Structures are given as structure tokens and as C-alpha cells.
Amino acid sequence: MRVSKCIGCETFPCADVKHEGYILPEVEIDRANIRLVLISEAAPDDPADYYYAGNKAQFEQTTIQAFNQAGVGVSSLQALLDLGIYFTTAVKCGKTGYGIKAASVKECSRILERELDLFPKVGAYLLMGDVAIKAVNYIAQRQGGGRAIPAGSTYKIRGGEYFFRGQRAFPSYLQVGPSFGIEKSKLRMIAEDIAAAVGLLAII
Questions:
Q1: Under a CB-based contact definition with an 8 Å cutoff, are residues 19 and 11 in contact?
Q2: How far apart are alpha carbons 78 and 135 in whole angstroms?
Q3: What is the C-alpha to C-alpha distance for residues 54 and 77, in angstroms, rounded to an integer?
Q4: Second CATH level (architecture) for the domain 3-201
Q5: Cβ(107)–Cβ(19) below 8 Å
Q6: Which residue among 79, 89, 110, 140 is buried most deeply as judged by most CB within 10 Å?
Q7: Burial level of 140, CB count in 10 A (0-12/13-18/19+)?
Q8: What is the pLDDT of residues 107-122, one digit of tens each?
């Protein structure tokens, strides 16, 4: 299955994102094999840095670093895919500034919702950063529930037991982008959250 053939944005209504940076996973996915979904913030400024763009892509390099620090010894994103871990972004276009407006996150969460529907055997979700957390909460609220993840700083809420679509959800910090690696405390917490999700599903 190729995700980009199954979902997409047709109207591009959001005003505060780079539509020319719109990107969806183009890689072939065995949907029945996916057990863990990692959702990060937005598409990178350069499509060559996106997940699945190759081993020189920034998203791949920093994600591999994070998983290695969590005890998952792999050297490529494909190896993580083979373990049943899928990677995507909450917002499918690039950012124009530091943040993304709530209306844009809410709009794009509709695409993310259809994307997550493609994977029926997911047992956990890693929510990397505030945008991913907001997007998942919008989906949960549309489906008739309350927030999947409570309000509050990531530092305070991470480590709690939360559920989204009946499965565990792990709020954490963003593991991709040029700022990754600056704060050692965040690196440690990201690794802990990844290890908790991987351990829950006994992926390794």
C-alpha cells in the first residue's frame, strides 16, 4: 500500500503553511505489519529531509539517533518499518514560521485521521511535540470523546497513561528538525518515551 495514493488534501485551505512543501509518504507499506505509529509535527522545509527520502534525510538521521538512544539498534528507517513502526507528520505542508495555527492543525488532522484508519493493527502512538498532540486531540474529539491527551506542558504530562482509539498514546518531544540534540534532557526523555512504546508492544 502506498499512503499517498489513499489520502490527500484537495483544497489546501490553510493560509499559514507552505503548500509547495506538501508531502505524504510515498513508500510502500505493509499495513498489516504496522503496530506503532510515530507522529511528528510538519513536513520539513526541504522535501529531501522528509521521512523515507533516504539515509541522508534529516528526519531519518535524527529519528535513527533517537531510536538508537532508546535501545533500538537500527541504521535505517526501513529497518524500523520492517519492525512495524510507521512515521508521518500531523501537518502535511511545511511551516512558514515557528508555530502553526490551531485552525491549520485541526484542518490537517482530518487527513491524519484518514491516514491512521489505514492501519488496523496499531497498538500504540508516539506523539512527538505539541502539534502532534493537538492533532490527535482534534481527532479524538471529532470521534465523540474528550481529549486523548490532557492540557499541560509535555514535561508534566509525559509518562502518564493515555489512550487514543483504545490504544496507548505517548506524548513526547519533537525528535526531528535542526533543534534536535540541543537539550540533553529532552534527548533522554524522547529516548525514554520511545523505549516505553517499543517495550509495551515487545517490538524488540
A1: no
A2: 25
A3: 8
A4: 3-Layer(aba) Sandwich (3.40)
A5: no
A6: 89
A7: buried
A8: 999 999 999 999 999 9
